[in-house]
Amino acid sequence: MERNIAQIALFAAMIAALGLVPQITLGFGVPITAQTLGVMLAGAVLGARRGAAAAGLFLLLVALGLPLLAGGRGGLGAFAAPTAGFALGFPVAAFATGFFVEHVRLRSAGLAAGLGAVFGGIAILYICGATGLSIVSGKSLAEAFTLIAVFIPGDLLKAAITGMLVQALAKVRPQTLAWHRDSASVTQTRL
């Protein structure tokens, strides 16, 4: 139990720290940031429930006023910004990434994590982000998706980094990937 709490807190801190990485803000108020890499890693390393809990803890800290979102934003007002859909989608994206790695059995933990990050950290998160951008900005959903499509190449790079880091972790400390350790005793399905 204590280990789970520590891991959740550690990954919430990592998501916050990745918001400090220098960023570029595009004209419509959505910054290019490394925070989504933390969300992808939380789901890929911790699994669905604990990854979502880490992202949820991060959002709780933001709601309490800590300036942890990219650009030093925090407080309830951050959830009314154009990026609110992305921020609120962090726990959903971490859960989806973790769900993917827990249920799609591949020989390579890195490949499972990379594909899970594409599914949860890009596809699911973009649905949340575009929906939020559409609501806040008054743009159509199609216009919102068009505006955020510029982020896809960078997020694909983050998904690849997630896969590489998880693969390295699986080799060095496989016991930290409980979902991967548990899958060793289960018949694996290969893509």
Automatic annotation (TrEMBL):
Gene Ontology cellular-component annotations: plasma membrane
Q: Where are the transmembrane segments?
A: 6-30, 51-70, 76-101, 113-138, 144-166
> Matching InterPro entries, A to Z?
BioY
Recorded hits in Gene3D superfamilies, A to Z, give: 1.10.1760.20
Record's subcellular location: Cell membrane
Q: Give yes or no: UniProt keyword Transmembrane helix.
A: yes
**Which keywords has UniProt assigned to this entry?**
Cell membrane, Membrane, Plasmid, Transmembrane, Transmembrane helix, Transport
Q: How does it sit in the membrane?
A: Multi-pass membrane protein
The UniProt GO MF terms for this protein read:
biotin transmembrane transporter activity
Principal place of residence: membrane
Membrane as a keyword of this entry, yes or no, is yes
> Which family, according to UniProt?
Belongs to the BioY family.
- Protein's name in the database: Biotin transporter
